[in-house]
Design goal:
This is Small ribosomal subunit protein uS10m. The structure is a single chain. By secondary structure, the protein is α+β, with helices and mostly antiparallel strands. It has a domain of about 100 residues: Alpha-Beta Plaits, CATH 3.30.70. About 35% of the residues lie in helices and about 20% in strands. The chain has eight helices and four strands; from the N terminus they run ααβαββαβαααα.
Length: about 230
């Protein structure tokens, strides 16, 4: 009996509270100084101000090590961020960028010539490096990622990539088959474009002295009359 009374009181309290509840008012939008609502930027544009998204590797098998080099820090960091974002949208699990030791090179040269050649000056060049590693990547997708980076390469940036591909046993036989297939395509491809050679000098002379070529060059020979 006590349990029934408690449940009835709870239901009655819930019903009375719902009757007297005020309607929900939507939350006010963010406004600027003039009172106008601020326009929200697209998600793709907002993501530029945040850290690049990353995908987790399932097995952790390295597929590519990309080393980015530059003499300045700003283009190096910019292109490293660009490479990570491109890898995310291609579905590649990328880690990095990992700072690598700097490469410091120095040269000592004479300051001037003749009587001032004893005074020397030093020049120094510091190369900054970053490492980005791709794990569990499809070889075709990795090649597509590298080609995209080469196409949109930033100025003052150098890249060096080490790519690993895992094949099944007996890959040598498949390589021989691909070589034979390439040889079979040499004959059809030789007739494409102007890659076909003209042959020896005799063939060239025969082509130049042909009657059709003379007709196109307005060098048509007059027919000679033969006396019977």
């Amino acid at each position: 009996m006590a349990q029934q009374v408690v449940t009835c009181i709870a239901r009655r309290a819930q019903s009375t509270s719902s009757v007297g509840a005020e309607p929900k008012v939507p939350a006010p939008q963010n406004t600027d100084d003039k009172g106008k609502p601020e326009v929200r930027y697209p998600r793709s544009l907002q993501a530029l101000h945040l850290r690049p998204l990353r995908r987790e590797a399932e097995y952790g098998i390295p597929s590519c090590d990309l080393q980015i080099r530059s003499f300045s820090l700003q283009p190096l960091e910019f292109f490293s961020d660009f490479a990570l974002r491109a890898a995310y949208y291609l579905g590649l699990a990328a880690s990095g960028p990992v700072p690598l030791p700097r490469i410091i090179e120095r040269w000592t040269v004479p300051r001037s010539h003749f009587i001032f050649k004893k005074s020397q000056e030093n020049f120094e060049r510091v190369t900054l490096r970053r490492l980005i590693q791709i794990k569990d990547g499809n070889p075709e997708t990795v090649q597509l990622w590298l080609a995209y980076l080469r196409k949109h390469q930033f100025y003052g940036i150098g890249m060096k990539a080490n790519v690993w591909e895992f094949s099944k046993l007996g890959v040598g036989k498949t390589m021989d088959l691909s070589g034979e297939a390439a040889k079979e395509l040499e004959a059809p491809w030789a007739h494409l474009g102007q890659t076909k050679t003209l042959g020896t000098a005799e063939n060239v002379q025969q082509l130049l002295s042909s009657r059709r070529l003379k007709e196109f060059g307005d060098l048509r020979e007059l027919p000679t009359s033969t006396s019977s």
